[in-house]
Structures are given as structure tokens and as C-alpha cells.
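Intended use. Records like the one below are meant for learning the mapping from a protein sequence to its folded structure. Do not use them to infer anything beyond what is encoded.
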Amino acid sequence: MAKVYNRKLLPWQYVGSLCIVLALLGEMAGFWTLRLMERLEWLSYDLRVQATLIGDKDPSIVLIDLDERSLSEIGQWPWTRHQIAELTTILFEEYGISILGFDIVFAEPEGNLLAQQWGQLRERYPDLPPAPDVESGDAILASALATYPVVMGYYFQSQAGDSDPPSSGALPIPLLVDAEPEIIEAVPWPRPERFTGNLADLQHAALGGGFFDNPFVDADGVFRRVPVVQYWEGALYPNLPTAMIYTLFGQPPVTLKVSEGAGIIQLETIELGGFEIPVDARGGALVPWYGPRGHFTYISAADILFRRTDPRALEGALAIFGASAPGLMDLRSTPVASVYPGPEINASMLAGILHQSYKAEPPYTLAAALLVLGIVGGLSTLLFPRLQAVSIVASSALLAAIHTGLNLWAWQQNWVLPFASGLVLLLLLSLWHLTMNFWRESQQKSWVTDRFGQYVPPELVDEMVHTPESFGLEGEQRDLSVLFSDVRGFTSFSEGIAPTELTNVMNRLLTPITKAIHQHRGTIDKYMGDAVMAFWGAPLADAEHARHSLEGAFAMLQALEEINREFTAEGMKALAMGIGINSGPMNVGNMGSEFRMAYTVMGDNVNLGSRLEGLTKAYGVNIIISEATATAAPDWACRCIDRVRVKGRTTPISIYEPIGIHIELSSETKEWIKRHEKAMNAYAQQQFRQAYDDFSHISHDYPTDNVARLYLERIDHYLAEPPGPHWDGVWTHTEK
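Structure written out for the chain above:
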């Protein structure tokens, strides 16, 4: 049955799973873009950053902050060039910093304000002499810049529109790159269309310069990576932190580490002065985040100008002058904060170079991601259709844990590999297969219920749905246990009941009996008036069918006791029941004709079960089982009550009465069984006088023991007419 459903439904399940895998593989390979996947990958990157912030604080990197307090004390920006020159001089002369980087641009001339104002006065007062020769603010700042190791900031513009002015200002001297021009030209660097630089006098006075714009901001507006260099008119220009390191170490030659294959040049690292910066193919580096906003040391520019800061706090420091005041528009969105000062991003880049703590996407990132998706998708596609819902969820969780663990291990090695794609693939495949499996199981459950619901309890139907390979309708031979029951005296019982009430009485009788069978995994074969035939071990295999049949039989007797209490309370007679159980090989399956089929059992062992039920009346016991059943249920204590030949069989068998589970028997019951066995042994050895005495004592102590009373009658006969030397102890029954 299960294979039929697999053939019908599994191909669609495999096809759907394959489509999901191919969709994500295509997105990863760049054949198409799924914006949601892109956003989820960014989110997973941000979460990993937040969970593993480096945390170490480098006291040698400080931010000279153009903050709200500085603007309040000194005045709104822009300050005079004289004030900037004074700030620069104080930082180097009194605080002893090593290098200063300006995260601002001085694109417009300040001019000589005194000369301008003097000229306006002479227009009104022509007799005034010419203006005194006072040095301009730009000249004063240029003089300060030429005195100390200062790196100026500027910015490139990726795209220039028709309304944009041409490039202005001056660019610094480009990097000295030790690489073939063909290699430099082949790398897909950011290639801006214009720039805004510092005044030529200021830029030429400084030792170097670095850009602070970022053409690599992601579509969600978050700074995650920045270009280390940009390409302009055949030369490479560094960003501000790289320019500071480049200047600090005497402008050493810059080398490019590339890999070549299939005619493609792949940039891997940029090296300067012994420091390596891992980059992607376009020269972009992931920002090495150290902490939340304020992680690096901030010193208000006003505190420098008014000399309120301890000089020892900045000695030998690498300083960046920039703005955190909200009104100056130098705040960015980053993985660690939605509002993050631009100068601190440059400080993080500077610390990353010094401490070599960059994370990077290795050149094999795409191959690794495709391999992971292929393995995850392949395993899920092959395994999930054959698993139950709980197993699918558990397997998905295990694969997700492995994927997460490997990804975090790679992260600790500073390798950034795609993460969200693997989890999304697992989630989609799990949902797909859970949905398909639910659909298949619903159809299978409907199919099983239609065919077996009349035979087996709902609990077994559910189990059969989840273990479809263990049953079928085809005829086969199995080891089973079969039970026959018959209500004693039901004919006389029903004589006093109106025909219209008899059906209700039958339902009241058979319902709890059937429930008792179902509760112990039994299958109803048929009802024969007040008689019931059931079996264990089919359609669902049951290795403990004998034990379950005994449990079911005792539950039937208990159910009958409860029904009898109701009947007697209503003025009806109490009923008794005889049960026979046999175990062994039997034929089971859907049998019948083309007009009507029934799921049933057949065979000699089935007939023997029926015969055993018929013997219960003769021996005055409720249940008789065969030796095969007693052997197959070793936990149950049984007493052998005879060795007989039943009608229709020539081979003698031993028959037993089940008493109860060994460990639950009282010491008195165990003693009773032991005394019975002793009496039976004496009887089997033709020690009839001894057997008679033993059974007499048992009958006296246990007046309800009908077996002892039967043997007393039988031994009376043998004492009068001894059976002879060839007697085998077998009693032959000629009735069913």
C-alpha cells in the first residue's frame, strides 16, 4: 500500500524540493536576485557582528570630536582656519600625537577677512591707508599642515550628473603601487566620476590625503564594507585610515595580491608596510567592528583648544578630527548602531589595519556556499520524503545546528561565509516536505481507515499510517494469536427481553468488549451473535501478540463484570463468558469473493482457538489458552489444567488457564498453583489416590475451583475402572 502512494506522490515531492534548491542555488550564483534573501543575508551578518564584537579598546586611537559642546563654546561650524591651525598645533606640540587625519574637507577658500573688511571701509573712507599685510587663514592653516604629519580628507562622487559642477580642489599624491599596470587596470575598482578635494595650498602642504566617501553602502543604507582604494585617472587613492597608515610608515610601496584563473584576475589582499587588508574583488573591506557607538576614546575639540584634557591621554596617539554633532550630517547606519558617527567608522578601519583583525569573504566563498546549499538540499531532498514530521523537524534542527556551528567556526577564523541562505533552504524544504507528508499521510490515513477502521482501533490506524511498510491486504502467513469468546446462557438471557430491546442490549454488551480488545491492540475479525472473534499481530505486526491477547481477554472479563452490574440493577440476569486463545502460524489477509471481502485469519491454529473456547464450559473456567500461547507470554502465570485431544485433531495438546502476571500474584495464589501442579503430576503418573487427596484439599480450601472438582469426579471413575498401563493421560473431547 505504501509503495503505491510513494509512486503517486513522491515524484511531485522530489520535483518541488528540487525547484526550491535550484531557486536558491541560482540566486547564490547570481543568475537572478531575490531581494528577501539579500536582506536576510545582511541581517544574519549584522547579528553575527553584534554577537561577536571584538571589544578590545585601543587607547592609541582617539577621535577629536566636533560635538555639540564644541559648537556651543566655540561657535557654529565652519570655524576659522586660524582656529583649525591652532587646534592642529596644540595636538602635536602640547599633546604629542603621532598623526592627525581630517575627516572633513576644506574645499572653499577662507580668504583674508581683515583685507576684505578694510577694503569695504576704504570705499567709504578713501583717505584710509592700504590694509596692513596680515596672513590669511588659509595660509596660516597651510603653514601648520606643512609642519606636522597631517592627512587631509576629501571625497569622490561615484556618478556625476549634468547639473553637478566639475571636480574641484586638489587630490593628494596617489599610492605607490608595486604592480603591473595591466593588473591594476583589470581589477574592477570603484571608478568615480568626480571629486571634491581640499584647496590646493592645503592639500600640497599636508603629507597625504584619503577619501571618506563610501560607494559600497548596501541597498538598505547600512555601512558594512568600504573601499580601501578608488581608481582615478590611472592611479589608486586610499581611504582616510589607509592613507594615515601609509603616511605614518613613510609611504611604503603597496602590493596587490591577486589570483588568476580562466583569464580572470581576482584581487585578494592589499598590503602596505607589512599590513595586509583582505578585500573583495572590487577592493572593498568589511569594517572590523569593535563595539557600539562610543567604543573609541572621544575628546571634545573644545577641551583641546581650552587645554582641559590631560596631555598624557593623547601622547603618541593616532587622531582623527571629525564631527559627531547631529547637525553636521556625519552620522551613519551600521550593523552595531542605527546612528553611528562617520569618524568612528574610520577609527574602526584604522584599528583593523593595526591589529590585523579584518574579517573577509575568502575567494572560494561562492564555491563554498554552493557546496553547502547543494549538500543541505541534496540530503533534505533524499531523506525528508521518507521521514515522519517529528523526524523532519529533528533532522532540520540537526542540519541547522551543524550549518550554524560550521559557519560560526569559519567566522572565528575571520572567514565570512553566507549563512542565511542555508537556514532559509532548510526552512523551505522542511515546510515543503511537512506539507507534502501531511498530504500523503492524510490520504493514506483515509485509505487505511476505509479498509481497516472496522477491524482495528483508531490508535492502530494512526500507527499503521506512520508505519505503512509493516502491513498490507495481501494474504500471508504470520505468527498471530487468535481469540474466540462466547457469552454463556445468552439464549435464556434474551428470552425475557423484547425483540425491540435486544439490539440495544447487544450493543451494550459488545461495545465494551470490543473496546477492551481495541485497547490492547486487537483486531476484530467478526461478530457471531453474542460471540466475538479477534486476533493480534495483524494487520500491524506485533511481536508481543500473545501477551496483548491475554491482556485483552482479562479486560473483556472486567468489562463484562461492569455490564453485569448494570444488567442486574435493571433486573436482568448476569452473564458469563468463555474465552479461548491460541497462538501460532496463521493465514491472514483480505479474503472472500468479488462480491464481498473480509480481512480475516484462517488455518488449523484458528480452529484450535475456537475449540479451546468450547472447552471453557467443560472445565468451568473463563479462559483457556494453548501451550503455544502460554510459552509466548512468559510473564504470565498459567496452570496446566489438562492434556486433551479436541474434536477434529488427533494430536494431543496441553491446555492452560492463565492466572495473572507473575510479579503481581499473591503468595497465596502462588501456593495454590503449586498445589495444583503437584496434584496434576500425581494424576499424570496414575497415582490416583494421592491425586484424589490433593484435589480434595484444594477443593476444600478453594470451593470455586471447578477444575479440582472435575478431577475428583474423573479420578472417582479411574479408581473404579483403572485406565490400564498404556494410558497416556490424554482426555479426548468429542464435542466442540
